[in-house]
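tmp note - ABC transporter domain-containing protein
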Amino acid sequence: MVSLFHVMGLITTGEVGLCISYALSLTDLMNFSVRMMALSETNIVSVERIKEYHDIEREGPFTSEYPLIDAWPYSGAIEFRNFSIRYGNSEKLAVKNMTFSIKGGEKVAIIGRTGSGKTTVARGLLRLVEKASGDVFIDGVNIADLGLRELRTRITIIPQDPVLFSSTLRFNVDPFNQFPDSDVWLALEVCQLKQMILKHKDGLMCEIEEGGKNISIGERQLICLCRSLLEGGGILILDEATASLDHAAQILVNEVKDKRDRAPDVDQTLRHTPCIALH
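out:
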């Protein structure tokens, strides 16, 4: 086309050279534009992730001014009054108008099929999910009046999938370094883990992989149970803690659980199988 314009006398020879020069550079510019578009498409994922985190509903205050005594919960009595929970902006309630009470020292099993709301009850008690309506009282104190730290440090939960960090055994048992080694060894002995740890040359400093990948499922649950022994607390929640264990491991975990003598104590066990719920 440039040659045609030149033959027709519409452009000069110099302008022909200029057009050819720009045409050659245009190819590089097009390649650069395509690369930038591909890079932008890749990096926009980071923007989406930032927006996702920004839109997450914030939890309640970490602490509060509520005059809570150090011995709370002193009996562990729990009362749910017309308690309802929904997830996110869903109109459907996961738990609706639930009303029941647990006396201090009682062991209570909540039994139901998958998706019936058993774990939701535990999440509501820990305020991992905020209520839609109703109230929960522990020893007469409305948990909505408490800071999250004050509430969650008084409740111990052992989930179905044990939470273990990539660190030492001691850190996983006592993450805030609150207890002396003698107490840690005593808790390990109660949980029947002491002999296993003594076989390691590093003892309490032996490494645990993230999620406890280098130990058995039963040992993971026993480590979590050992952590609960040290932390104490007036309320213990087992959210299907033995569901993925074999029969021998279930018996071992239940024996250790029965030795948990931190009183007062409410053992709220959430399981599918009625016969197991009798423990």
